[in-house]
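re the bet — no i am not wrong, look at it urself. input seq straight from the record:
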Amino acid sequence: MHMDNLRAKLKIDFSSVGAYLATLLAFAIPVSTALTTVSMILILLLWLFSPNIKPRITLYFQNPLTPYIGALVGVVFIGMTYSPAAPADIFDVCKDAVRLSFIPLLMYYLQDDKHRLWVGKAFVCAMVLTMVLGYCKVYGGLPIGEKYTVGAVFKSHIKTSYFMALAAFFTVLYGIQHPKQRWWLGILVVLMMHYLFFLSVGRIGHLTLFVLSLVFAWRRWKFKGFVCAGIALCLLFALAYQSSSVFSDRINLLKRDWVLYQEGGRLIESSLGSRIEFADSSMRIFATSPVVGIGTGAYAHGYETLHKDETILMTVNPHNEYLRFMVETGCIGLIVLLALFFKQWQLTRQLPPNQRLLAQGCLVSFYVGCLLNSWLADFTEAYFYCLFSAVLFSKLGREFVSEPAPVELEQAL
């Protein structure tokens, strides 16, 4: 009798374990690179070695995104064969591409509404922690995150501001679904927006907030809402410019960068000018091999070759994901990348209205961000994209896989 009771207690629901680890991953992404890595490794090991692998393989290969991810990984691997880049550079880009294959893998553990909600809440909690510590750092003199500017604590101002805008968006949508909690959720959103304008120098966060607000207004109230939201946002940004020295300094710096670039100033002194130069150079490199590109991981090599013997700011990527794919894998790689993004957008139409708004907001903000950053090559943003692609579309996986029963520990071993 004692052994029977012990065996009953030792039953393991591996799907729930995977969901717990995905929740930990969501909290870790904005907070810790090491914890993100450990979480993902544990999820991968669980997927590979827990019992009853057939449903996991079924979901993986029947998932509508898998062919597009496979094609993208294939294009990157083929680019290895003619790349002049150093092996280490090639390996890094291949690793970034393979990371996308985690999307269908994560979906298996996020087919339940409850588990997806855990992930969203964990991400918002991580950003609330960041926000609280940021306030303590700026207004309380707390010696934390000193290598980062102003209110950034765990990650750079670019990553932090982007995630904070998304966390505010998630909170607004959650508040719509839970009217009784709107008062304190509203306060939380106001604090997040105050953080963005008064404690963050990340302009990508301001842009993301602008884009998400327009997506929200369009989905809720169509054209009239879109116009009204645009006017309201302009007024909000004007008010922030007048009242926040942090925000106004960043806008003034943007204007100064543009003037500096127009006057032919040194690009190292101009963030905007350097990005314009990167884009111009990228198009010139792309023109040398427009169909298949110059090879996987070869952007830095191509840029250095183009500007040989010139005094110019060098870079390993153009701070633009689309240009990076164009240069390294040509039109073929760009088409495959855009096909993946377009397929995700198509899949949002199969989601319920509230989830469709969440999905489209996340996707548009990421696609816009890829115009200004090479986010699929950036560890933190790429893992965010993988996890939340799984969260957004794992509900579609219900038609492919039914959840297996919990497994006894003896069977697992």
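see?? Residues 203-243 form the longest helix (41 residues). told u. also DSSP finds 18 helices and no strands in the chain. so pay up
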